[in-house]
Structure formats: structure tokens, C-alpha cells
Amino acid sequence: MQNKEIEILDFDDENNTHKKVSNKNKKRLIKEKRKLYKGEKAFLIISILFIIGCFLFYGYRTYHYYHITHDVVKNITLKDKLTALNNIAYQNDGLYEKTGYFYYKGHDVNNYVYYSGRLFRIIDIKNGIRMVEDETETNLVWTFDSNYNNSHIHAWLNDYLKTLKDYDNYLEKFEWCNEAIDLENYKCTTIVSDYVGLLSTNDYLQAGGKGSYLNNETYFWTLNQDHDGNVFYINNEGNINNISSKEDHHFSYGIRPVITLKDSVSLVSGEGTADDPYVIEYLGNALLKDNSIGSYVQYNGDSYRILNIDDKGISLIYDGVLEVEKTYNDVYKYLNSEFIKKYNKDELVKNTYYVNEYSYSNKYIRTNKTEKESYITIPSIGDLFLNENNGYWLNDCGDSSLGLYYTLDENNMFFSDLTSNKHLIRPIIKVNNDTVVSRGNGTKVDPLIVGEEVSNNVEKDQELALAS
User: Fold this and answer.
1) Which residues pair with 351 in a beta bridge?
2) How far is residue 278 CA from its own chain's centroid?
3) Could you state, in order of their start, the residue ranges of all structural domains in the chain?
4) pLDDT in tens, the chain (468 residues)
5) In Å, how far are 2, 181, 235 from 188, measured between CA atoms?
6) Beta bridge partners of 206
């Protein structure tokens, strides 16, 4: 079959018409037209790859957040998982049962639960699942009155409850002992019903005492007192002691809150280990303000924890201490003139802080406070997560006339020192409420990523898409 010749037309600018092209000019014209479309073709390819990159990035985010909010272990409550027959121990470390009452005993037990940005250890299971924070949250003096209801600890725990996300959906009240007890013959008739409390000496001994998972090698208060009005606490060697005061000096020890989960709480994921704890809520919301207080955050490459959320922004406390020592009078100058340079100031909000004298007779909520404002501040007595580190300055002064301000010593107890001496610094920053999370679920191993990386992630994904 004879090939039909394709007619090619060119445009005549003078006559505003098309004209037939001779055979001899066809090859030249086709070549010229190919050159004309080469740039457009490259632009078209780049545009398509860019659109694909955006689709992949935002498609992944949609799938990620749908996955974490819908992928539930179906029809399994945490209690059902824990009390399954194959989980019951008859010797060594593990979960023991006494006629429907379950309790953990020993050191090597997989009883970790991640809830509201904090890691807990399950104590026992009966009317609810009772659990204690794995580490101490903060530390305070008990006060003059050994009665738990009248202590600074009780007041602090009531405020702590408000930092737990949706606590009324997850928690129920428990009956706590509030009278003098004997260690060897624990009996209690006076009780207080509350959402949050402390470990009892009986809880500690039942778990195995200093050889149990409850011994975290720190000082922390128990709920109980002896008949002489001395409050029992656990020391850093795991022993029960009752030296809560000496003459006119009252000691500050750590606080490990105890809460009780409802029997109906569902298991979302996890195997109960430290690296893979039981998870009972959905993690990793797209806006930072919608995540739990306590969640770990990576902001511009630095590790923080959410300390507080209010109408003005989200306060983040540094997860560690800066490797720099300053006198107290140089701390705020350094933070707000040097340290702040690593951040975009437009993303930060000024934080209110208070300076006041603190002594064992003061409540942790101080009156006649001196209010100040700064972009970057430091912690105060009574703040959450205070005991994660030590050796750093606090806002509170022991005696302003003598120039004494508080730090935390190696045992996480308050120690007042001269402002002319040097100590470490632990910054607190505050970011805008519209801060977006690019990825992460808020745990220590998978923190919420915010800051410069959020905007860079889109560019990086687009570059990867173009490169492929």
C-alpha cells in the first residue's frame, strides 16, 4: 500500500492565512517545531512530578492520621488482655491472682501503660486498673500537717489531674487510706475517695519492695504516716523511711501520682514493655495543641515535652539541660539574647513566669508573686517533669535579701545557692497555637515533629519525587 503523504501547513503572517509547505522545507520546519516544544515538555514533566510529590505527601499524612485514629485492637479491653489465663504467674516475677484480685510482683514485669503523654506501671487490677507513674513528676515538701488531705501534695495532685487528657472518660475514683498505719500490720478504716493519690506502703511491699518494679532509685512520698506523725517515703536505695522533717527543716521528696483506669478502657496497641507499652488512646494529632501534656516534641531539632496548653500557646520544657553554666543573674540574658537565635522568633509567644520566695511553709502555689514576661523562661517549683534532670536553676528564691535561689541537687531535692554561683539551665519556650505537627505520635521514641522540619518536609518529599 502506498503511504499517503502528510500535508503540513505553515502560518503566513502577512496574509493572516495558512500556506502549504513544500517537501523540501518539511524536515526543517518539523525540526524547528521540535525545538520550540522542548522547554515546554520539560516544564510539563516537572509539573507532573511536583503534583505527584504533593499527592504522595498529603496522601501519606491522610493515611497516617486515619490509621492512628482507626486501627484499634477490636473488641479487646486492656483488662481482658492483662487478665488472660496465659498471663498469670505462679512463681518468679509477673501478674499474680488472689480470687479475682490481680497484682504485679517482682522486678521484670511487662506492665507499662502510655497514657496522656506519660508512662505508667500497673499496680493491681480489681475494680479498675490502678497504676503509678514510672518516674517522679516533681517534688515538694509535705507541710507541717501529716494528714494527707491537708498536705501540699494533695493540693498539687488535684491540679495534676487537670493535666491528664479526658480523665473523666478514662479514670474512676479510688479509695485511699488516710490514717496512721503500722508497716507490719497494715490496717486502715479512714479513707478518702479521689481520682488521684499516691502509693501506699502496702502497695510497695506487696510488689516486692526494693526488689520490685516500684523501686526506681529515687526519693518519693507514700500516702501513709506513722503514729508519731512522720510521713513514710521511699529513699533512693529502695528502703521505706520516715524522716520527713528534722527540727525546723522539712525535706522535699518526689511525687509519683497513682490513678485508676476504668475496666472498660480499650486497648489500642502495645505489648506492655518499656519500648512498646500498652496504648489506650489515639496519638499524634495534626495540631500541636490537640496533643497531650507530657508528649515529646522535636522542635527545630531540639527535644522538648509539652508542659502546658492555654489560649495563648503551648509551653514546651527542654528534655534535658543545656551544656552551659551561668550565674542566676545571667540566665535570662543568655536565653533571650543567645539561645533564642536558633529559633524563628515569629513562632514564639511570650511566657509569663513568677518569682517569689519559697519555703516549706509555702504552698507550691505562691501568693504575692512577682509576675514577669519573657520569650524563654526556666522552671519553677511545682512544675511538671521537674525531676527528669537536676543541677539547674529554678525561678524561686529561698531568701532574696541573701541572694539565694533554688536549684535541684543530685537527689532532686531543693537546694538554695548564691546567685553568683553557676548552675545549668533548662529552658521553657512557648509556641503559637497554630503550630502544625508533620509526623510522630508524641512518645519518646517517636516525638511530634514541629518547627522548620514541617516546611522542609514538603520540599524534601518533592525533591525525592523529582529525583525518582
Assistant:
1) 374
2) 16
3) 20-70, 78-261, 284-450
4) 444 444 544 445 455 554 555 555 555 555 555 454 566 666 667 777 777 766 676 565 555 544 444 444 457 999 999 999 899 999 999 999 999 999 999 999 999 999 999 999 999 999 899 999 999 999 998 887 888 998 989 999 999 999 999 999 999 999 999 889 999 889 888 898 999 999 999 999 999 999 999 999 999 999 999 999 899 999 999 999 998 877 767 788 999 999 999 999 999 999 999 999 999 999 999 999 999 999 999 999 999 999 999 999 999 999 999 999 999 999 999 999 999 999 999 999 999 888 888 876 656 555 557 889 999 999 999 999 999 999 999 999 888 788 899 999 988 888 999 999 999 999 999 999 999 999 999 999 999 999 865 444 444 444 444 443
5) 109, 7, 24
6) none
Exposed/middle/buried for residue 56 (C-beta within 10 Å: 0-12, 13-18, 19+): middle
CA 367/CA 363 separation, integer angstroms: 9
CA distance 226 to 245: 13
- Answer whether 233's CB lies under 8 Å from 412's CB: no
For 47-55, which contacts have Cβ atoms below 8 Å and span 24 or more sequence positions?
Answer: 49/465, 49/466, 50/462, 50/465, 50/466, 52/465, 53/461, 53/462, 53/464, 53/465, 53/466, 54/458, 54/462
Distance, C-alpha 192 to centroid of its chain: 30
